[in-house]
């Protein structure tokens, strides 16, 4: 990540909310520290017989409103502070969307592109078996994140189930549909980002058909967001991935970019579009900018040059605190991650409910309920921001922190 330490950013946001809400230092301390952390060493047998040891973490930030919930990331940049920050943001996201979970996050420090499928299966199974004591449908429910997918979740579910002696579908979400996954889960985060982006455009008086979008990251979140925005009539003028960026001021043909990525693994080289610098993409003129790749990409250095009217945070933590202040001063609306990208956890919650009941819903039912939750959270946050004079991020964090703090106060402290 290119910004500051994400844990410092997350704790600063919490400190602001605690101050605004008038809670004491004890409440800050309780919410600033994760309830439980587990770091494991994962011995991996490579295909050539060598053994390599990689590090994995699982951080459970909070259980007050229900079991912990959060993604599992495979990336060479994983570190414990980053996992702690992401776990805290999950707590706020679940509270804001009013799903009955606390927050968690997991990470394995590994570059999945450097390993075979068999090696990734062995890493996943060993990591899962190391964290089995702290996960489960009533304890902590992992899901996919950067570098992991529904196959990873299928292996986790199988490893956990083998340890229990029976199939436990509710231990992870983001599973393949044929294995207890939910219809609509794969596209849920992107749909949620798009719903919120369209609400933001409407709130600022922009017609989608006369608006342009720039999307950073073309993975599980960015790719669907680009497609759904284009379907809603927004002209997507630039997209990027870790290899580079492409633009077409007349609007990219997203279906053709998707087909090109399926074929080559990158957006770079897509015929008919112009290759541009990945960093320059963030400062292109557009109506809505969706950072949907990694943390800390909008910083003090580039925020003054951002020409988007609205930033919708598809990624977790893409805007540093300093950049946030600059964007606010420049009148750029920033829709915070805990609201904008919450569609994934909402449908994960639906998947868990369906798996626990062994009764599955139709895709249209899932999408309709997702839309309802996203729009209701959008109204909660914008109403609160308007009545309190807070930024959307501070309003969202305050609402979420208040829900978690209220639950703490009602439950009381044991012993
Ligand atoms: P992914 O691994 O599927 O995709 C990540 C994409 O970002 C890839 O296209 C990669 O090439 C690109 N990328 C990486 N570094 C980049 C850089 N420096 N510049 C431009 N592109 C870069 O991951 P994902 O699941 O799409 O997650 C993306 C972000 O969204 C993360 O912050 C994640 O925590 C967050 N998020 C994901 C979900 C989900 O359901 N998958 C839900 C909520 C939030």
Give a short overview.
The protein is built from 13 helices and twelve strands.
List SSEs in N-to-C order.
HHEEEHEHEHHEHEEHEEEHEHHHH
> What is the first-to-last residue Cα distance?
40 Å
CATH topology label of the largest domain: Rossmann fold
Which structural category do the helix and sheet elements fall into?
A: alpha/beta
**Low-pLDDT residue intervals, each spanning 5 or more residues:** none
The figure for the number of domains is: 2
Main sheet overview = 7 strands, mixed
Tally of strands: 12
Instruction: Round the mean pLDDT to the nearest integer and report it.
Output: 97
**Gyration radius, rounded:** 20 Å
Strand order of the largest sheet: 9-8-7-6-10-11-12
CATH H-level homologous superfamily name of the largest domain = NAD(P)-binding Rossmann-like Domain
| CATH class categorisation of the largest domain | Alpha Beta
CATH architecture of the largest domain: 3-Layer(aba) Sandwich
Tell me what portion of residues adopts beta-strand conformation. Answer: 15-25%
Assign a percent range to the helix content.
Answer: 40-55%
- Ions, cofactors and other bound molecules: nicotinamide-adenine-dinucleotide
Helix segment tally: 13
Overall 3D shape: globular
Structure, described:
With 415 residues, the protein is α/β, with parallel strands linked by helices. Helices cover 44% and strands 18% of the residues. It is built from 13 helices and 12 strands. The protein is globular, with a radius of gyration of 20 Å. Nicotinamide-adenine-dinucleotide binds at residues 144-147, 189, 216-222, 240-242, 278, 292-294, 314-316, 341, 344.
């Amino acid at each position: 990540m290119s910004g500051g330490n994400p844990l410092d950013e997350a704790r600063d946001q919490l400190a602001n909310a605690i101050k605004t809400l008038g809670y004491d230092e004890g409440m800050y301390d309780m919410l600033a520290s994760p309830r439980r952390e587990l770091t494991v060493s994962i011995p991996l047998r490579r295909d050539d017989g060598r053994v390599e040891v990689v590090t994995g973490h699982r951080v459970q930030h909070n259980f007050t409103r229900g079991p912990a919930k959060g993604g599992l990331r495979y990336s060479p940049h994983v570190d414990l502070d980053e996992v702690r920050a992401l776990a805290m943001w999950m707590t706020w996201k679940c509270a804001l969307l009013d799903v009955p979970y606390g927050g968690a996050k997991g990470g394995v420090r590994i570059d999945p592109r450097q390993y075979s499928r068999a090696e990734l299966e062995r890493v996943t199974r060993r990591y899962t078996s190391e964290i089995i004591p702290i996960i489960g449908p009533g304890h902590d429910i992992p899901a996919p994140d950067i570098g992991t997918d529904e196959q990873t979740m299928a292996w986790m579910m199988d490893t956990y189930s083998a340890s229990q002696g029976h199939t436990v579908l509710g231990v992870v979400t983001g599973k393949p549909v044929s294995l207890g996954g939910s219809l609509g889960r794969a596209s849920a985060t992107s749909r949620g980002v798009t719903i919120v982006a369209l609400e933001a455009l409407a709130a600022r008086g922009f017609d989608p058909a006369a608006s342009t979008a720039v999307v950073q990251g073309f993975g599980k979140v960015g790719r669907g967001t680009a497609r759904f925005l284009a379907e809603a009539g927004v002209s997507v003028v630039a997209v990027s991935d870790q290899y580079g960026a492409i633009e077409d001021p007349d609007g990219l043909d997203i279906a053709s970019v998707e087909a090109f990525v399926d074929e080559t693994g990158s957006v770079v080289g897509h015929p008919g579009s112009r290759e541009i610098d990945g960093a320059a993409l963030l400062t292109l003129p557009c109506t809505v900018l969706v950072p949907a790749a990694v943390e800390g990409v909008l910083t003090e250095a580039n925020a003054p040059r951002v020409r988007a009217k609205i930033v919708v945070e598809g990624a977790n933590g893409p805007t540093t605190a300093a950049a946030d202040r600059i964007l606010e001063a420049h009148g750029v609306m920033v829709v915070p991650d805990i609201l904008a990208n919450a569609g994934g956890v909402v449908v994960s919650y639906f998947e868990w409910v369906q798996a626990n009941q062994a009764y599955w819903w139709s895709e249209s039912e899932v999408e309709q309920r997702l839309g309802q939750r996203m729009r209701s959270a959008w109204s909660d946050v914008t109403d609160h921001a308007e009545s309190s004079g807070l930024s959307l991020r501070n309003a969202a964090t305050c609402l979420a922190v208040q829900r978690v703090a209220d639950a703490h106060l009602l439950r009381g402290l044991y012993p």
